[in-house]
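Q: Here's a chain of 246 amino acids. Please give me its 3D structure as C-alpha cells.
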Amino acid sequence: MTALAVVMGGLSAPASAQSGARKEQVKKTAEIPNCTKRLGTVAIVEPDNNWWSALQLGSPEAILKVFVMKSGCFGLVDRSRGLQSRNIERALADSGELQRGSNIGRAQVRAADYFIVPDLVTRNSNSGGGGFGGMLGGMLGGTLGAIAGGINMKKKEANVTLTLVNARTTEQERLVEGFAKKRDIGFGGGVGFLGGGGIGGGGGGGYENTEIGQVIVLAYLDAYTNLVRDLGGLPEDASAAAPQAE
C-alpha cells in the first residue's frame, strides 16, 4: 500500500465513521495542482521549536512528503533517518566490509535545492480566549506559549505556515499560510483520519486519532496547495540559477 493510500484510507475505522473525513481528505488532496516538470529537489526540515510535541503529535514531515509526491513539483531527498542509514552504509564501505561492486562512496548524494519548513502561525497568545497558545502560555510561559498561538483547541482550528528556502542562498523564496477548522471535515466517533497506524502518529497520540491532529493535516494540505499555486517564477534549474560555488 502506498503512503498516499495510508493517508487517505482510514482503514481501521468503520465505513460510516470514516466516510466524511476520508472524502474530504481525498477531495482536497486531488485539488493539489500538479507540475509538468520538477523544479528541483526538496528536503523537509523541522523547525527548532518542535511545536508538535506539546500536542503529543509526531513530526508533520511524513505528511508533507505525501503532498510533495502528489504534486510532482519536486524530488525528495531524505535528511533524517534515510541519510543516517546511508552514512552507516558508507562507513561499512570505507571499512571494506561491503561486497565488491556495492558502489557506495563519495559524491553520490543528491543536493537539496530547497528546504520546506513547516510551522505554526505565531499569534498573540491572549487573543481568541480559547487558544491553545493562551492555555499553554499560562502554564509554561515564554516562547512555547507564543509558538502554540496558531492552534485553537477550543474551536479546533489551526493556522500553519510553509516556508520554501533556497538551499544555496538561504533566501525565503515563498512563505504561505494554511488554515483549517473542525467544521471543514466530517468527524465520526473514533474515525481514523490517516488510517490505523497511519503516518504522523507518535508521542502518545497521532494526527489520525485526534480532532486537532486531523485539523492540522488539513491546514498543511491547504498550505501546500497554496505553495504549489505560488511557484511561478522559480527557475527550472535551481543549481544553474544560483551563484557558482568557488
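Q: Can you summarize the key feature?
A: Residues 3-77+115-233 form one domain.
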